Amino acid sequence: MLLDVQNLKIDFETHAGRVDAVHDLSFSIDRGEAVGIVGESGSGKSQSVLALMGLLAGNARVSGSAKLASAQAGEPSIELVGAKPRVLRRVRGARIAMIFQDPMTALNPHLKISTQMIELLRTHRGMGRREAMKAAIEMMEAVRIPEAARRIKYYPHQFSGGMRQRVMIAMALSCEPELLIADEPTTALDVTVQDEILDVIAELRERTNTALLLITHDLGVVAGQCSRALVMRAGDLVEHGSIDKVFNAPEAEYTRDLLAAIPRLEG
Questions:
Q1: pLDDT of residue 221 exceeding 70
Q2: pTM of the prediction?
Q3: Could you tell me which residue ranges the ABC transporter domain spans (predicted)?
């Protein structure tokens, strides 16, 4: 088991009082496995994974447990909930990477892509500048960015939305993390580009045996990419099981409603 989350709870202190975001969430993910978290906006999907990364807002309170298996056999697992910043900095990027929903806000608009990728590789893989530049170009080629050696010197605004998302994938996978968290990675893209992005993620995951935690509201994407699915509503886990079970024999009424809402071609 790579990641074991138990009884995760998240709430926020606001001027209006406490707001509960996630209630008692438990799940696990194995090495190389792909798990999807689905649900409507506000169900707690993104907040759950941001809590694992230590990236929640300052008014958040997190309890429960999220244990990441050790990188070396025989060493103890790492508790992510409540971990000190220096521990999380070692984990983020190197062992757990994240593709954010909006690459334009995730990328630094003032820095060239080359600068951002080189910094990542030098920090987490200890590469020299020349070696990091070579590895960054190779990774951009791997995500099918044409003329990578030239375009790596572009700023984020010089790429289209689909190409910016490819850059995010290249950065996320450049350190060969054990777990990739993809938070709505194709929301703002048209259907054709969405399929291309998902193909790139699947191809690189297979090459590196990276586990995937895919957050989306699109059940079709989960069915095509994942072996298991978690269905969330209003901070609660209402369904959890294999793709076959969730899609063909759902137990929760909410899951049945989500499936019924999918447009049918014959309709």
A1: yes
A2: 0.88
A3: 3-259
